[in-house]
Specification:
single chain; about 625 residues; alpha/beta; five-stranded mixed beta sheet; about 40% helix; about 20% strand; globular; disordered C terminus
Length: about 625
């Protein structure tokens, strides 16, 4: 079931429409997305890279620039330590490419999902010491690695953390008021917008964007915006770096070319890490896509080619559902180093070979995922988990790298927080995917004594269970504790579609908005499954709260109603030829005539029939 609230938020929609050259319906949509000022609307529609926030607003950015700059100038060996998902791979590429541009002696290490697990561990630190590494720079990880960074410090290795995940904390009680105390790692610099005291205006950036901001600061593209409290002026920063090998501040073309390419990967990270497409994320993705359509990166070109994609037509959809999964598959079934090697390819032959391997791995991953989802559904059925608010599913034989994607599929189906556990080499490990009303990282923190390791953020998390008891007892204890602590109500399990005006429902005025490149999506649920969004009366009236379950939607036989379906998993260029396949993938039963979009859907054993033409509604979800 999905809720839509009919909104009547006030603004001068005709004025906005005239000033920004949009339909008044689009103006109303933007107001319903809580844009209240004309400047906000301008940035949303026409924002440029100049509207993005200065990297110097990130706490510890100046420290990070100084530490890395000193290491480069002194010829120290630097190791970039990434992660095995798309964000971690792209972050690693961004930092490695940027540091090399500045003349650094740099290499990259990405943990193996099975052998190393997430982020820094003692083995990787000790290996870095053996290899003569003097500085580690993390990306998309490190904020929860306090013990590992203590070890690095003891071995004489400096560490700079760049991350975007939640900062670990403990709750202290000062009288009757509980207070959070952050547990920051003892690094030379910690760059993470989510840490307290960070004045960065937008906290929702991914690891790739944090890495991009560090390189942006280091190549001098934004030195004019250093904070007023900076210990170093713009001129002093230039003085620090003027002697760096290959660093030529007068050669603006080279710097510009570097940042143009790295922008592609910041956009790639943002889409694939499912960041909200608002604020500067929106600008970075829109501008990054433009550059990706004419990308000079041989690896990206090859990956598009093996997936039969035309570069000029690349969209956020292709990043999230075609190209991104190919990079992710290497980290799931093999080693993410393959994906990084693809992006670093120096010849087309090398790139095409790597791209074919990645696509084959992803095809294999798809088959394993389907089997894993089926096992998860069977597990839930056998244990009568219908009443559980948090679904904890143990699939010991499933490849541990698939836990997260299976959890995501089950979450989509049941709209509940889901944790899928598997049997790894070092015990039970798992990944979780959450819903908007459940902060998964906070929930795990409430039972952190059950874990040997955990981390994440509101919508996703990873964990390793302590094995003080038998496997099944440890799993059941986690299931019981999470559900006992869970305060969610039935209303929390109802997916909130967003605010919609009667004009929005009565007209397709948003269509023209998608005919230009002003929008990527109206909100973060751009690709979130097949959903019905309403019975739309032809005459305007009072609607109140709409509970749009399919049964009540089909109860009316009146010809005064129009059924619209939002199919965000479709590219808007999707034809009727492949619509049937996509509907089946979403659980829609056929027979089905793609020319008139007729199909059967089975709900609780009852056959419901839709015989109206379904339109692709381009009014986005919040």
């Amino acid at each position: 079931m999905e809720k839509w609230l009919v909104a009547a938020k006030k603004a001068d929609f005709n004025k906005w429409a005239e000033e920004f050259h949009i339909d008044p319906v689009v103006a109303r949509i933007l107001r319903n997305r809580d844009l209240t000022e004309e400047e906000q609307v301008r940035r949303f529609l026409y924002g440029t890279l100049e509207d993005c926030h200065s990297p110097w607003l990130l706490k510890d950015m100046e420290k990070a620039v100084a530490v890395v700059g000193d290491a480069i100038r002194e010829g120290k060996k630097i190791r970039v330590m990434g992660d095995y998902d798309v964000d971690g791979i792209c972050s690693s590429y961004i930092l490695t490419k940027g540091f090399a541009f500045l003349g650094a002696n740099v290499d990259t290490a990405i943990p193996h999902r099975i052998h190393d697990g997430y982020g820094l561990n003692d083995h990787l630190i000790e290996l870095a010491k053996e290899d003569g590494v003097e500085l580690i720079v993390t990306c998309d990880n490190g904020i929860a690695a306090a013990k590992q960074i203590e070890l690095a410090n003891s071995l004489g290795i400096e560490v700079v953390v760049t991350d975007h995940h939640e900062v670990p904390y403990e709750t202290a009680h000062d009288g009757e008021v509980p207070k959070r105390r952050e547990i920051l790692p003892p690094a030379a610099a910690v760059v993470d917008p989510k840490q307290s005291g960070c004045g960065y205006p937008f906290k929702g950036i991914c690891g790739g964007v944090v890495a991009y901001k560090l390189i942006q600061a280091m190549v001098g593209r934004d030195n004019s915006q250093m904070s007023e409290n900076s210990l170093q002026t713009s001129d002093e920063v230039r003085t620090i770096y003027k002697d760096l090998p290959e660093y030529k501040p007068e050669n603006a073309g080279s710097e510009a070319e570097l940042m143009e390419e790295l922008l592609e990967f910041a956009a790639f990270s943002t889409v694939c890490d499912v960041m909200e497409l608002v604020d500067e994320n929106r600008i970075l993705v829109r501008e990054g896509l433009k550059r990706m359509q004419r990308s000079r990166n041989l690896g990206l070109q090859a990956l598009m080619e093996v997936n039969e994609l035309k570069p000029a037509e690349i969209s956020a959809y292709h990043l999230g559902f075609i190209l991104g999964p190919c990079l992710n598959a290497t980290g799931r079934l093999d080693t993410a180093k393959r994906a990084l090697e693809l992006l670093q390819s120096e010849t087309k032959t090398e790139a095409m070979s790597a791209a074919r391997e990645l696509k084959e791995l992803n095809d294999s991953r798809k088959n394993l995922t389907v089997k894993g989802v089926e096992q998860a559904q069977e597990y839930m059925k056998e244990r009568c988990m219908e009443q559980d608010k948090v679904l904890v599913i143990f699939l010991p034989e499933v490849h541990e790298s698939l836990a997260g994607i299976i959890a995501g599929r089950i979450r989509e189906q049941y709209n509940r927080p889901v944790i899928v556990l598997t049997r790894g080499e070092e015990g039970i490990k798992g990944s979780g995917r959450s819903i908007e009303t459940y902060h998964m990282y906070d929930a795990l923190t409430q039972v952190k004594e059950l874990f040997s390791k955990y981390g994440g953020h509101k919508m996703a998390a990873g964990l390793s269970l302590k094995m003080d008891a038998a496997e099944i007892n440890a799993v059941e204890q986690l299931r019981r504790r999470l559900n006992e602590n869970c305060a969610l109500t039935e209303d929390d399990f109802t997916d909130f579609g967003g605010n919609v005006s009667t004009q929005e429902m009565l007209r397709g005025g948003a269509d023209q908005y998608y005919e230009n490149d002003k929008a990527i999506a109206f909100g973060k649920n751009y690709y979130n499954g097949f959903r019905f969004i309403g019975i739309l009366p032809k005459t305007e009236g009072e609607f109140g709260l709409l509970d749009l379950d399919l049964e009540s939607l089909l109860a009316s036989e009146s010809s005064d109603y129009l059924v619209r379906a939002l199919m965000p998993k479709l590219n808007f260029n999707t034809t009727a030829d492949n619509l049937q396949e996509l509907l089946i993938a979403q659980g829609i039963k056929t027979p089905f005539d793609p020319n008139v979009a007729q199909f059967d859907k089975i709900i609780d054993g009852e056959e419901l029939y839709i015989s109206r033409i379904i339109q692709k509604c381009k009014i986005e979800l919040d």
